[in-house]
Amino acid sequence: MKIKNKLRLGLGTLFFLILALGLIAAKHVYILKEDTENILADNYKTLDYAQRMLLAVDEINTNSKAWEIFGQNLAKQKNNVTEVGEAEATQKVQDHFELLKAAPRNSTLPGLIRKDLSELAQINMRAIQKKSDIAVGSVRSAMVGIVLTATLSILIALTLLINLPSNIGNPIRELTESIREIAAKNYSQRLHFSGKDEFGQLASSFNSMAEKLEEYDSSNLSQILMEKKRTEALINNMHEPVIGLDENKNILFANNEAVKITGMSLGDMLGKSAVDLAVQNDLIRVLIQEKQGHHNGINSNSATPSLKIYADNKESYFEKEVVDITIIPTGERLKKFIGQVILLKNITPFKELDFAKTNFIATVSHELKTPISSIKMSLQLLESQQTGALNEEQKQLMESIKEDSNRLLKITGELLNMSQVETGNIQLNIQQSSPYAIMQYALDAVKLPMEQKEIELVVETDENLLDVKADMEKTAWVLINFLTNAIRYSQQEGRLVIELRDDDKAVKFSVRDEGKGIDSRYRNKIFDRYFQVPGSSKTGTGLGLAISKEFIEAQGGAIGVTSEIGMGSTFYFELAKA
Ligand code: ADP
After folding, report:
1. What would the CATH number be for the domain defined by 431-576?
2. 559 CA to middle of ligand 1, Å?
3. How many helices and strands (H and E) does the chain possess?
4. What is the pLDDT of residue 304?
């Protein structure tokens, strides 16, 4: 039954019981009133008339009005005959009163009248007694009726009092607890209200809601687990080592390759702090080493040095890439750093190819050097005129062969130097060298091309410069490279400034030209191997500045450029004083 109907029934029953109680009580009170009124009307009045007639009989000889009073009361009594035998008794009183009226001196008749009146009173007294008994009886039955109805009402009220609050309160409490459980993600919670009342309907709606939530939750979970497995499988199947760190540098995951190269077990890595592991594991230390400027967002173009790691049963080369992982948490606007992924790119095949290329270049350039040198020697012989005079045309041809063989020699020299640099075989002969001597050596070497282009040379040097710690030949080579570039990129009759400056603990060599300058986009790249600014002269190899950098850095110096497009360039290097 529905709660609404239960309440209606309970309260309705109570209402009807109270109504019944009231009606029963009212009915019995009414009956009692009727009884009392009957006694008063039927019997009390007769007694009153009889009393008055008795008094009138006593005064019959002394009071002249007594006859009249008697007659009046007798008449009234005749109209108030209500009991069995009362009519006969009243008739007797009347008969004797008639006789007394005819013989007023008769002394026995008053006595007879008194007796008659007494009999009349007796009849009515008995009637009063009987009616009183009846009234007592109806009071009793009224009492029984009222007590019964009251007991029934009390019983029903008690039942309602005990059952109704728990009938309504218990399901509400259970519902509250279940909602709390659902809020705590216990989606297996169910309500077990039987019946078809409102709570039954509520329970079935609640249960279907919980079931759907449970289904959604478990499907979501299994989906997430599936995705997790898929991602793990993907990472594990990658041929390159991958390690994931959280924001506190604790290791979240590492794929098989990563486990292999670190030489640790996965169990020893997962959940551990990479900083702690770095203490005992060199590779992890290198992996978590931050690149300078990494967190300032500076993305330097300089190539990341490759890592040499023993993997795949041989020395392998890897390039490290650290990717910062950031997310925007739900409901927030700011990005949050949640960790890093360290990727190692296996560049061993490229390295092997690179070695092969370097060896090849070294061999070829070495092999080319001898024939080129003999070409140059033959040219010198031709020039010395011992072999006969040359006509103008032959001289021009010889000049161009000389130029080409010089260029060839320069290129083979650069390639040889480069292969030395790449194989790490730079042979340095560091001595105390005079900066002035280095400068003079370089200037002598570029004298001819400078004259050819009618370049104005300005030399600005600080006086009494101390010697520098340098490989004289290689440093001069760098300066010559700066000067030939400056001449090449200067206008005809341009101006070139060479400076030697005292720079605290070092001496700064610089070459300034007024040529076309270098676009800022390429300024970092010109020191890379084989790089040439797009659109520049194609005669070079793009190796000069790369070799210069290697030479200077191998001597512990620093190299750089400042340039403004259209305003010329200044190339410089610094070497420590001896
Ligand atoms: P290359 O043999 O091609 O000159 P370098 O390594 O010496 O190779 O120079 C690399 C590039 O730098 C050149 O291609 C050129 O575009 C640029 N460069 C070098 N020096 C200058 C300069 N003084 N003015 C303008 N550009 C220059």
Report:
1. 3.30.565.10
2. 14
3. 16, 12
4. 62
Give which of 526, 519, 559 is closest to 540, Cα–Cα.
Answer: 526
Residues in Cβ contact with 393 at an 8 Å cutoff, skipping those fewer than 6 apart: none
* Closest of 509, 483, 512 to residue 577, by C-alpha: 509
Substitution candidate for ligand 1 out of 411, 455, 485 with most atoms within 8 A of CB: 485
Task: Using the predicted structure, report yes or no on whether residue 508 has a pLDDT greater than 90.
Answer: yes
What 3-state DSSP class applies to 465?
A: coil
Q: What is the pLDDT of residue 291?
A: 58
How far is 138 from 74, CA to CA, in rounded Å? Answer: 34
CA distance 217 to 186: 10
* Nearest partner of 80 among 126, 112, 48, 118, judged by Cα: 48
544, 547, 276, 512: which is closest to 422 by C-alpha? 547
β-bridge mates for residue 346, sequence order: 318
**Beta carbons of 306 and 318 less than 8 angstroms apart:** yes
Alpha-carbon dihedral sign for residues 268, 273, 278, 283: positive
Distance, CA of 124 to CA of 132 (rounded, Å): 12
- Residue owning the nearest CA to atom 13 of ligand 1: 532
Of 158 and 291, which is predicted with more confidence?
Answer: 158
Distance CA(575)–CA(578), nearest Å, equals 9
Pocket test for ligand 1, best of 523, 532, 565, 572 (most atoms within 8 A of CB): 532
Q: Which two tokens stand for residue 88?
A: 């006969």
Q: Is the pLDDT reported for residue 26 higher than 50?
A: yes
The model carries a pTM of 0.52
Residues in the chain: 578
CATH class of the 353-423 domain in this structure? mainly alpha
Task: Give the domain 238-346 fold.
Answer: Beta-Lactamase (3.30.450)
Maximum Cα interatomic distance, the chain, rounded to a whole number of Å = 222
Please, are residues 479 and 438 in contact by the beta-carbon 8 Å criterion? yes
Q: Which amino acid is at 350?
A: F
Q: Exposure string (b/e) for 72-105, b if CB count within 10 Å is 16 or more?
A: ebbeebeebbebeebeebbebbbebbeebeeeee
Query: What percent of the chain is modeled with pLDDT above 90?
Result: 45
End-to-end Cα distance, the chain: 108
Please work out whether the CB of residue 413 comes within 6 Å of at least one atom of ligand 1: no
Minimum mean pLDDT among 156-165, 433-442, 496-505: which range?
156-165
Question: Crossing angle for the helix pair 108-183 and 3-38, nearest 10 degrees?
Answer: 170
Question: Could you tell me which residues come within 8 angstroms of residue 189 by beta carbon, excluding any fewer than 6 positions away?
Answer: 178, 181, 182, 210
